[in-house]
Structures are given as structure tokens and as C-alpha cells.
Amino acid sequence: MPAAFSFFAERPAMRFAQNAEGARPLIMVAPDGLEAHLATLPPAQSAFVRAQGFGAAAGTVALLPGALGVEGALLGLGDPQAREKTRFALSSAATALPEGAWKLHGDLAQDALHEAALGWLLAGYRFARYAPDAPPKARLVCPDGLDRAHLEAMAAGEAFTRDLINTPASDMGPDELEGAARLLAERHAARVTTISGEDLLTQNFPMIHAVGRASPRTPRLIDLRWGDSGPALTLVGKGVCFDTGGLNLKPGASMGLMKKDMGGAATVLGLAHMIMQTGAKLRLRVLIPAVENSVSGDSFRPGDILTSRKGLSVEVNNTDAEGRLVLADALALADEDRPDLLLCMATLTGAARVALGPDLPPFFTDDEALAAALSQAAHDSADPLWRMPFWAAYESKIEPGIADLDNAPSGGMAGSITAALFLRRFVTQTPRFAHFDIYGWQPASAPARPKGGVGQGARAIFTALPEVLS
């Protein structure tokens, strides 16, 4: 990787101001209270605000001049309905304000204040590995009553995830993904082991090997462990560093974003950073099957039947449904350890995008308490999730007759559900299990989310963990 690039580079724009002394006021104003507030300002300031055309729309800023320059600013809150439609709407202030420390003033509900502060930090992200891109220089003082360490850990974990996804496959293959996991482990005194190449066969990870064997970039299973006390949490992330579709080759238009097919791995690594950074009292394990799904004379084929680590046979009806194959072996290993909670994250199906779009990832679980905690945490952390069912009536769709399981049922209906049902077959000893079918990509720039790689679900999980593992 270029010498100037580091996944853990210091990012001042994604941290709160260290000192509140001298911070200029950023006064929050709703549209219906604007005129009343302008009446309290000196005439020159109120006239200047009006001259800027400021109407207090959500995220808009009006500077307040003073004898020595800008002495403060107004931040528009917009109406509540508008803010509901646009996550992190107030984060636009981070790029609109001049350099220096700023402190929020005014009334805002605690959940809205949390979202505003988090959005400000996330708006500071820039991916500058290949071209310069200066971050904003305005810094926010952490609002009173918020957990600074928690917010900064979420922002740092999100930045790590975004960096991993945004890095093209030329610089992010299985070896480089392992290197990123090792950097993370070194930072937090965690331990990493890997099983790679032909050792995947001798140590019984046949489906990881089958998917990755066509590529000159050696497939592997990355295993990170941290912590020696507390409940056991295992995270499994899909690490397909590039997906050509294999012999069922993707068309060019569908291949263009496939550097993001390791988004599940990137997201669990970002989540792991949040957990370790805040010193959570748990035993963490992260498993990443890291492969490149390539085309060569050694590619696995449509019609092949693979025997998984679990002993279940799988008929390959589409080599482009490879993610569930590598995840199956990793989930089987995780299940043998019987953790208190097992979570799987993957950029798995287009069907999930058809159902819910790019901004709302589904999750699947049979655990009602876990589902409720995740749904509440998704709201609290501005990290939306939507529960979908392990619909038992569709089990027959993944049973081809010639083998125990089918990796790509025909018909095309309920693709996200049948993929989730497939994965559940490999988790038989761990009662608390959830699968997240994420997109991992922001198609167009939005407040606090530039176009490109993005974490989904990690903040919600991080927020829910204290309740879920108590």
C-alpha cells in the first residue's frame, strides 16, 4: 500500500474538539422560531442573516459577524418531518463553517442531539488514498450528556470500514485484507491466525478452498480473537475481495462494484474496532473467509457438489452465489465454539436491494429479544435495519434432491430469505444467531455519507450489545 496511506491515520475531523474554551456558539434555530431569535440579535447581525437568505432549513448555516470576524453562527433545524426523511441532516454544518471549535446551543431532544454529533464526525471522512481530498476544519465540542468515547469509537470504526471497501481489489485482495486485520489486532493487542491455501482442505474448509482456488491470490480463513472474560461474541464477515461471478460470469455492469463484495468483512472489522476501542467486557472472535472468485481452469463449476465443513452436501447451481458457500464453512466453525451470540454480515443478495433498497439492510433472526434490541438500537444510532423472516415454508426451495442443499434456487423469488435459510443450516448449536444482508455502498452522496463504501448495521449492533449480552 502507498506509504502515505494508513487505515488508522489520525483524522482530526472525525474527533471532537479537545478544548471547549474559545469555542464559538452554533445556535440551533427552528424555522418557526427564527424571527423571534433574530429579534434578540444586534440589528447588523440580524440584517446579515436575512441577507444570506437563511430560513433555518435543516443543516443550513448563517454566519454571525463580529468585531474580529465571525463570532458565531445559526444552524437551521428544519421541521421534524424533514429531518426524519434525511438522516444526519444537521451534519452539513461541518463543511459549511469556518475553521475552529464550535459549541451547540439550543434545545434538541437527546436522540436528535446524538445523531447530530455523530453525523458531524462522520461528515469528516475523506478517502484520500489515491488523490488529495481535504476534510472540513470546523470541530465540534462534544455536547453535554453524550458519551464522547462511544461516539468517537463509532466514527473511527466506520472510517476503517469505509477505507477497506473503497480500496480497489488491486490493493485489497485476501492477503491485504489479512494485513488489515493484523493491523487492527496489533492496535488492540488481539491475536490473529490464518489457514490458507491447501491447508484449507487438510483442516476441513473445503468450500472456502473451492471458491478461492481459481485465483492466484491465495484463499484463507482469518481468525481474530480478543478478550479473555465475559460473554462470547463471534462475528463472521464475507470477505470476497472481488467477485467475477466465476464461470457464471457477471456482465460488466454488474462487476463494476465488486470491490465492495468484502463489505461484510470490512463491517465486522469496523465493529470489532468499536468494541475493542471502548474496552467492552466480552470475548470477541472475528472470522473472515477471504477469497477472490476468479475464472481459470481450476474454477469450481455449475453442477459441482461440494461437501461442507458441516458435512452437508451442496449442489452448485450458480458460481455467482459463492458468498454463502464461504460463509457456510466459517459459520460451521463458529458454531462449534457455541458463542453466546453469533452474527453474520455479508453483501449477499441483490434480492435484498430489490426489497428494501440500498439504504435499509435486512436482518434475520429467530430470537425475539435480539430482534427487538437491534431494532431499537438501529433507531438510536441512526443506523437503520429491517427485520425479515426465516420463512420455514421456503426451506424446500434450498433442497435440490441430488444434494442436501442448493446454493442458488431457481425461480428468483425470495432470494434474500432463501440465502438466509441456507446459512442457518450451518448454525445448529448456537441459539442466538442473526444474519445481516448489507449493501455496503452509498450510491450517491448524502449528509455524512459520501458516495462510496459505507458501514451498515455495525453501529446498531454496537449500541445493542450491552443489552443483548447482559
From TrEMBL:
Pfam families hit by this protein: Peptidase_M17, Peptidase_M17_N_1
Organism superkingdom: Bacteria
UniProt xrefs under SUPFAM superfamilies: Zn-dependent exopeptidases
UniProt keyword annotations, A-Z: Aminopeptidase, Hydrolase, Manganese, Protease
Domain Cytosol aminopeptidase per the UniProt entry, residue ranges: 318-325
PROSITE patterns registered for this protein in UniProt: CYTOSOL_AP (PS00631)
InterPro entries recorded: Leucine_aapep/pepB, Macro_dom-like, Peptidase_M17_C, Peptidase_M17_N_1
Similarity comment text for this entry: Belongs to the peptidase M17 family.
Protein name, as recorded: M17 family metallopeptidase
Lineage per the UniProt record: Bacteria, Pseudomonadati, Pseudomonadota, Alphaproteobacteria, Rhodobacterales
